Amino acid sequence: MAVRFPGSGSPPSLILKQIERMQAEDVAWHDGRAFAFVYHADDDLERLLKDAYTAAFSTNGLSTTAFASLGRMESDVLGMLGDLLGCPSATGSMTSGGSESIFLAVKAARDFTMERRPEVRDPHLLLPASAHPAFSKAAQALRIRVTRVPVDPHTLRADPTRMKAAIRSNTIMMVGSSPSYPHGVVDPISELGKVAYEAGILLHVDACVGGMLLPFVRRLGRPVPSFDFSVHGVTSMSVDFHKFGYTAKGASAVLYRDSALFESQWFDFDDWPGGHYRAPNLAGTRPGGAIAAAWAGLNYLGAPGYLELARRAMEATDVMVDGIRAIPGMYVLGKPEASLIAFGSDSHALPSIVRAMRERGWVMGLQYPPASIHVTITAGHDRFATEFVLALHDAVANEVESPRGVVSGDYN
Ligand SMILES: *Cc1c(COP(=O)(O)O)cnc(C)c1O
């Protein structure tokens, strides 16, 4: 039946009850059953984030003149992030998420380069095959050609030699991921930085998922290669607070080493009767709550808080990796540095394992090529890692031959 516009209003209690009822069908993320989408650490942090979000609920980041509080919080958050990632003087903006941060980095690269290299009429973007779809989405909208270069088949990391060979006279920017989403491996950013610098092109490091995680994984004493602005040649980075920053959704950042590159991100317009309109972002109106919650989360947790969250996520990862490897024929792909992993099998049908796990309440993504199951492990999973391993062993033990064809493991 078609939904009609409400002919009358409803009382708040009924509305909230209805939302609760609809949410009963959602994945039980609070019980650790989701391995993407939700980054939950603990209930105290969540309460603070909600209070901070609510405090700024009605404010609008479109105008940091009207809402000086948001301008202050945004510049604090960007300053903290630049400090964490090896470039305290970096400039940039907070955005609605990784996709917007990436869109803006690509847009800035295009405009910056085309202004300085007028011979580039047909801009080209160079990606490792593992780069997030947001780059292709941005390139499609911005009419930029894309080459996706195969990653090293053994390490699943970007291959600097092949990336170098794929540079064309119209290439504006190269990308590396810290780490890649599919396999959780950090691309060789130092080598890519050298290649990009020598070729005179920009290098964006996509640390959407890792920017708030890798610095603390390293402080735990685990091996993490150079992945940020400490690498010569890295010109911009994207980092999501709503992932391993554990803050409210709608919060990411794009940062530039050079403020001239950031200038190319801005939209500046006065050809309408509404006065001068100038905005750095794709979004116009911006929810102040997401900015305030990010500011609150960073200040509440500080370095010790994030270190502890990284420790919990990595311990849960160790338990899960050991449990996966204990299943004959099952293995983890590559050598992931952090808490995103993909596992595969030569002897078990992954689609039927994904389905069997879903029947047990665990939601995981199936991905390919090569076929594997993806999980993002957060601090909040520490209480559920053993339960996960038991469920996985049970699912494998009761594995039924999968009918031909694939159970969709895709997210959407
Ligand atoms: C999640 C993610 C993105 C996209 O971020 P959204 O917030 O979902 O738009 C980009 N790159 C990587 C590596 C990611 O993990």
Mean pLDDT: 95
As a whole number of angstroms, the C-alpha radius of gyration is: 22 Å
Measured distance between first and last alpha carbons: 23 Å
Helix count from the secondary structure assignment? 12
Bound molecules: pyridoxal-5'-phosphate
Taking the sheet with the most strands, its summary is:
7 strands, mixed
Total strand segments: 13
Unreliable residue runs: 403-412
Helix content: 25-40%
In short:
The protein is of the alpha/beta class and 412 residues long.
List the helices and strands and how they pair.
Elements: H1 12-23, H2 43-55, H3 68-84, E1 91-95, H4 98-116, E2 124-128, H5 133-142, E3 145-149, H6 160-165, E4 171-177, H7 189-199, E5 202-206, H8 214-219, E6 236-240, E7 252-256, H9 259-263, E8 267-269, E9 277-279, H10 288-325, E10 330-332, E11 340-345, H11 350-359, E12 365-367, E13 372-376, H12 385-397
Parallel strand pairs: 2-3, 2-4, 4-5, 5-6
Antiparallel strand pairs: 1-7, 6-7, 8-9, 10-11, 11-13, 12-13
Helix pairs in contact: 2-10, 3-10, 4-5, 10-12
The structure holds pyridoxal-5'-phosphate (PLP).
